[in-house]
Write a structure and sequence with these properties.
heterodimer, A: mainly beta, Immunoglobulin-like, 4-stranded antiparallel sheet, elongated, B: Immunoglobulin-like, 3-stranded antiparallel sheet, about 25% helix, about 35% strand
């Protein structure tokens, strides 16, 4: 069918077939030194996990593991980070299906104690 | 004649359009439901799957954050109970921006579809997935029946 109507449907870019990604439940914590993100990714081993930091966007992506209910491609969630994350020292660990991402604050925004000297 | 065919096509194109809109609606709805579930509203925690693989039954439960010590299993006749507690407390010295990972204290029981040999079987927890292996009782195992030529 190449009527005007069908043609328009077929060129509509947002109608591509999509894989289903699930947003994992996340906790976001902060202390003086860092931000900490914990995300539930049951069934994902360290190999299945991909973390990506691009400017101020952190992407947590994990391929779906075996024995997980339902059919989906994996877990994915994108966080927009505040300025002042020290991107070179980001660390992550995976523990019993929970991934923890430590985002240290750069020195410039860390709270500092100022010593008072007697004059 | 030509115009008539084009009318015909146009009708089907509109139907096509409608189908695609419905597909997208269903897709969006499902996704919304998933998100609800992850906020802890949906089907309960943990999510569980039961597999029958002939001689054995497998139970898989998604228990992120739990280790072997945090899960209690009991088998009473053919009812399996999975219990435990997941704590997602605020780590010391931190303040929270967002807390979606809930604290769960759970106990779920499942009637298994057949008799189980309580002496065999086992359970492991790996990467937040609890796997329970249950050996079927001898009388519940599937048997091959040979077909003979008459």
């Amino acid at each position: 069918m190449n009527t005007e109507l069908t043609r328009r449907e077929e060129t509509r870019p947002e109608m591509v077939q999509q894989e289903r990604w699930i947003k994992p439940a996340c906790d976001v914590f902060e202390n003086d030194n860092e931000w900490l993100i914990n995300a539930d990714v049951p069934g994902c081993g360290p190999d299945a996990l991909k973390l990506h930091l691009d400017n101020n966007e952190l992407t947590i992506e994990a391929q779906r593991g075996e024995h997980v209910a339902e059919d989906f491609a994996g877990y994915r969630r994108v966080f927009t980070l505040p300025s002042g994350v020290d991107g070179n020292n980001v660390k992550a660990e995976l523990n019993h299906g929970v991934v923890s991402v430590h985002l240290p604050k750069s020195d410039a925004i860390r709270p500092r104690r100022i010593e008072v000297t007697a004059g | 004649m030509l115009t008539r065919w084009s009318d015909f096509d146009r009708t089907f194109a509109a139907l096509d359009d409608f189908t695609r809109h419905m597909d997208r609606f269903v897709h969006d709805y499902n996704r919304l439901r998933d998100e609800d579930r992850w906020m802890g509203v949906g089907e309960g925690w943990p999510r569980v799957r039961l597999h029958d693989e002939g001689n054995q039954l497998f139970v898989y439960a998604e228990v992120p954050g739990l280790s072997e010590k945090d899960v209690q299993l009991s088998l009473n006749r053919n009812v399996l109970t999975v219990a435990g507690e997941r704590k997602a407390a605020l780590p010391e010295g931190y303040s929270a921006h967002r807390q979606e990972r809930g604290n769960y204290k759970f106990s779920r029981s499942f009637s298994l579809p057949c008799a189980i040999d309580p002496e065999k079987g086992g359970a492991t927890v790996k990467d937040g997935i609890l796997t329970v292996t249950l050996e079927k009782a001898a009388e519940a195992k599937p048997r091959q029946i040979t077909v003979k030529a008459s």
